[in-house]
Write the C-alpha cells for this entry.
Amino acid sequence: MSYDYDLYVIGAGSGGVRAGRMSASYGAKVAIAESTYLGGTCVNVGCVPKKLFVYGSHFAEDFEDAKAYGWSVAIDPFDWPTLRDNKTMEIQRLNGIYEDLLNGAGVAIHDGRAHLLDAHTVTVNGQTYTADKILIATGSWPSVPVFPGRDHVITSNEAFHLPTFPKRVVVVGGGYIAVEFAGIFAGLGADTELIYRGPLFLRAFDSGIRQFVADELEHKRVNLRFETTVERIDLDGEERVLTLNDGSQLHADLVMYATGRTPNTANLGLEDASVALTASGAVHVDDDYRTSQDNIYAIGDVIDRLQLTPVAIAEGMCIANNLFTDRPKRNLDYDNVATAVFCQPNIGTVGLTENQARDAFGDVDVFESSFKPMKHTMTGRAEHTFMKLIVKPADDRVVGIHMVGPDAGEIIQGLAVAMTAGATKSQFDATVGIHPTAAEEFVTMREIRQ
C-alpha cells in the first residue's frame, strides 16, 4: 500500500524532532505535527528558560560576594520585564533553529493538533494524511489536583510569562521543578514559601542529598513547610489566601503548583487507533517503543519512563536507527542516566542512591565530603558543597555519584562517563585531581563513612 509518508511524528519536542530529522536523513519521507511550539516543553517552558531564570536569580548573591573581592557594585532594582523579555527572544531564536533543522532535513511541518483516525491515518486542521509508521511524541503537561480555589494558581508554564513579578510567592510541590522555582523566585527577591505534603522533598534522590539541599535552602531565603497541604485558596482582591491543613493561613501574590506532569494523550484519537494506555495514562510501549498497534510508536514524556530531554532524544535516535537503517539495533540503557537539578546550589547525580545500592548489593561503602567552596572562604557566605560516592565492595565498582554544589551538573556529566565505563574506586583514587577545584574531591575521598 502507498502512503503519504513513511513516518508521521505527532509532537515536535526534542524527541520528536530528533526522530523525524534523523529518519529523514536516512531516506524516509517524514512529516511532523505540532499544536503549540517547536522544541516542546524543554525549549519553551522547561529546561532552557528555567536555567536562564536560574542564572538571573543568582546575580543578587554574586553582587554581594563581589565586595569581598574588592568590587563595589551599584545595583539598580531588579527589572522583571528585562529578564522575561530577553528570555523570550532567546526562545524565539531557538524556535527558528528547530524550524530550520526540520526544513533542512526535508521534514514537512504541519501546524495544528494531530488526531488519529486509524492506525495509518492522521488529520490536522481538516487535512488528512496517511503514514506507514506513526510516532507519538506529545510529551507531558503540568497537572494540578482538584481542590477549592485551583483556578487561582499557575503552573510552571505560566511562570515564564508573568506580567509583573510577585512580592510574595507560594510554591506547592516536592519535585525538582518546585525546588528549582522556589530558588528562582527567592533569588529574584520574592518572599518565598515551599509547601510539600511529605516529610522531605525530592523523594527520588539520595537521602543525604535531600537533607543537604533542605538545609542549604534555609540559607537561600526559602521557607520550607513539610507535611503541609493546601486545603483551599480564596481571593481577597488580588491577594491569594491559602488555608493550610493545620488551619493556618498564608497570604500571597502568586501561587505556583508543581505537583507533577501528566502524559499528554488527550484528544489524539488513540482509542481510534487501538493504542493502549497504562494505568497512569501513559502510552504503553515495549522495549522497541512499539505500542499495542504494531506500526505506531511512542517516545519521551508521553511514555513516562524518564521525563528528561536527553532521554527523549536518545529514544528518538533509537526509533530512526531501528526503523530506517540496516545498522545494528539500538536500545537505550536507562541505568546510570545522569541528571541535574538547578536548585541553588545545584544537584548533580548519576547511578544508585544509597538505599537502592543497599537493596541491590547489601553492604556498600559510602564516601562523603562536605566543605565550603573556595570562593566563599572570602565572602563568608554559609553555602556548602556536598559530595558522595557509593561503592560496591565485591568488585570495587562505583555505583552511585551524587553532588550538591556550584556546577554540579557539569561535574557529574564527566563522571557519568566513567561510571558507565565501569570505573572502580581504585581507578578514582589513581586519578590525579585538578587543583584547586571542587571536582578533585571526587578523586581524593579515602575515608569510608562509618
